């Protein structure tokens, strides 16, 4: 399927000079949504996964679907102050600012195999912070999956050593 035809560019969002890759047209089309979910699952062929981490907020769309199909648990990683239980925190930089991500302190057991999923790999700060949180809890990141990789922003360099897969690359 031509996933690129379902991605909309939004100029100057969230700030001037940034072109946002909007995935909502893909999500709004049943065939594209199903095909994307299947393609993301196929990128994990032969990879054992105990937990799937979805990154706030668009990572929450596909991560639970993947977890269900893999027979794995789903873990939300959220922005600071959004999780109700004890958390670990990790600051990160992104292409248009800084923030803090949190994970529940009991979300991952030592040695569990973890898939990290988000919608876009841009500068890599968000995914790098998530990988650090997973490892602080004793988990092993087995792969980082994205719908879109913005290769021109060199985010993969921050994820050196982690397998990275994406449906689309710009």
UniProtKB/TrEMBL annotation:
SUPFAM superfamilies: PRTase-like
EC number(s) per entry: 2.4.2.7
Subcellular localization(s) per the UniProt record: Cytoplasm
Keywords, in A-Z order: Cytoplasm, Glycosyltransferase, Purine salvage, Transferase
Domain Phosphoribosyltransferase: 38-148
Catalytic activity, as annotated: AMP + diphosphate = 5-phospho-alpha-D-ribose 1-diphosphate + adenine
Gene3D superfamilies: 3.40.50.2020
Pathway: Purine metabolism; AMP biosynthesis via salvage pathway; AMP from adenine: step 1/1
Function: Catalyzes a salvage reaction resulting in the formation of AMP, that is energically less costly than de novo synthesis.
Family from the record: Belongs to the purine/pyrimidine phosphoribosyltransferase family.
Subunit structure of this chain's protein: Homodimer.
Protein name: Adenine phosphoribosyltransferase
Gene: apt
